[in-house]
Each structure stands twice: as C-alpha cells, then as structure tokens.
Amino acid sequence: MAEHQIVLRRAIDAVHHLTDPEPPWQDILRTARDLVGADSGTLIVFDARNELLNLSAIGFSDACFSDYQGHYHRCDILERDSRQALAGTWLDTARMYSPAQLQRTEFYTDFMVKHRMAQILCLIVESNSVMHASIGFQRASVDLNASQRMQSGDFAQYFRTLQSQLAQREKTLAIGWKSIESAFSEVGEAVVLLHKDGRVEKMSALAVGHLDDADGWTVRGGRLRHADSKVQRLFDTHCAAAIRDGKTRSVATASGWGEFCWIDISVAPDTLSLIGGPLLLIRLRRKSAFAMPDVIKLESVFSITHAEAAVLAGLAAGHSVEEVATLRRASVLTVRKQVASLLSKMECNRQSELVRLASLL
C-alpha cells in the first residue's frame, strides 16, 4: 500500500508540470504507466483528417515505434472507433472487442501480437474539430477489470488531475495567443499558428483578411495554400527547414501590381502547443509601392521633427523636392533646408539614401 502511494504521488507530481512551458511528457508517461501497471505508455495525437500528428511513447521498442508511426496508426482500431467519443472516455480492447473480432483485424494480428500487446487501454484527453488525442497503456496480459479500476479511487483522482491540468494549460495557451495576436496586429502584421503539415491551428483576425486572395494565399481544406505550385513548394520546404533547425525563413510573393506579401516562418514557442508536436508561427504583412510612409513612425524612428518626417514621407513616395513643396504649400527653399537637415540627422550623403531608409519601415 505504501509503495502504491509513492507511485501515485510521483505520477501526480509529474502531471502537475503539464502547465510548464515545456511539459515533461516522457516523465508523465513513465509515472502514469507505473501507476496503471502497464508495460508501456503512449501519447497519440491525430488531426481532423485522421493523420498522425504526434506520437510520444515510453516502453516502446524502436521497431514498435517505427511500425506504428510508419503504417499501423492508419489501422488503429481504437482510434477508428473513437473518433466521435468525447474527452474523458475510456477505451479498452478487452471490453470493446471479442477475441474473434480482434483476430480479424490487421492491427491486432500484425501489430499487437508482434509487439506482445494483449490489451490496450486509453483515455481520450482531447477531442475537437482540430485534434483527437489520447493517453494509452499497453499490457502483455489481459485484465478485464482494468478500465473499471482506472475510473475509481486513486486512479480516478489521478486522471481527473491530468484532465484538469490540460484544461488549465489550454486556458493559458488561449491567453498567450491573444497577446501575440494583439501585439502583431498593432504593427500591421497578421499571424497564423500552423502545424508542420500546413494545417491551420489558429489565425488572427487580420490574417482572415490577408488570406482571401484567389490568386495568392488562401486557406483551403484547413491548410495554408498558395495558388502558384512553385510558391507552395518553396513555402513547404521552408517550413520543414524551420522545424528542423529552428531558423527563421522568409517568402515574398506578388499580390498585385506594385504590391507584395511578405511571410516570415519561425518555430512557435512551446507555450502555444497544447499536446506536444512542433508548431510554426507564420507572420504576414502586405506592402505596396504606392503606400505613403507613416509620418508618425518616421518621426519616432529617426528622431526627426514632424515637418521633416512629412518631407521624408513625400520623398519616399516618389515625389521630387519641388512636388513636396507644392503638396506641403511650402517654398522649395524651405523643403531643401529640411532635406539638408534630414541628411545630417540620418547620416546620409544622398537623397536616395534617405528614401531607402524610409522604405525599410
């Protein structure tokens, strides 16, 4: 009894770290497996199209991990038969299928038997339109009372704690996403949270307006797509590379005469991932060659007067000194003096350098 309490305490201590920026899933799975009395433990996440998003396992051999990830997730009978089940539902092969039914499935005969699994128990921990996730336990022998035992006493306490901590993490993620959305929106950037297969997890309100171009970037089938296949291949390549080495990549695409869309691709913070697996943070901003630079921003960034910033904006928009003078109802001499002041303050030698600096904003 004392040993059981020690195992329970370790398992609960581990699951309390679900709200950490990077949850220790291996420790959570290890202590949960020991508490349940199983041979192995898994965290398995599928997307809305029933494709495997993430597999974490403790106690799996390399061959078992490879077999499931490479093929057998596609014929996982528990995943197939629980797609409509709600979070909190327990699944048990020993209770859901008779021995004869199991033996007629490829999953049992070619995967479970090969890897000495007589019974699989799993708890659905997340079930929504985006993902279907479960924490599972594999046993080499059948215990017909196992699933009932998991729903009573100390076991029930543990799994309630697990689900409570996941719910708390989900709330924290929602707050974090709102902060990111707000911060980037204030500087005119749209943001999209993306899975490695291109499936959209979240997008900011500004992104909705950016992703409605029939000839450019859109969301089709829940995935971020571009009308040009060459652009799409380049984007997919950059996404894969960013996940691999953590370095930011950028893609620029034309979105009309004199306009283009600039996209930065980087690995999202772990604090935005609910149940493991890498996510990408996509930042989008549209630029136009005909857009008038922001006078207030020029004034602030280059520490110049408001009048000088207005002149600089006019030059950056392609106007001559004479045209800027006309637009500002000032004399050409006054504008020339302001240009000279700009050259001094911004440490430039030519007017073209002023324009280049202004165009960077």
Automatic annotation (TrEMBL):
Gene3D superfamilies: Winged helix-like DNA-binding domain superfamily/Winged helix DNA-binding domain (1.10.10.10). Residues 301-358 form the HTH luxR-type domain. It comes from the Bacteria. This is LuxR family transcriptional regulator.
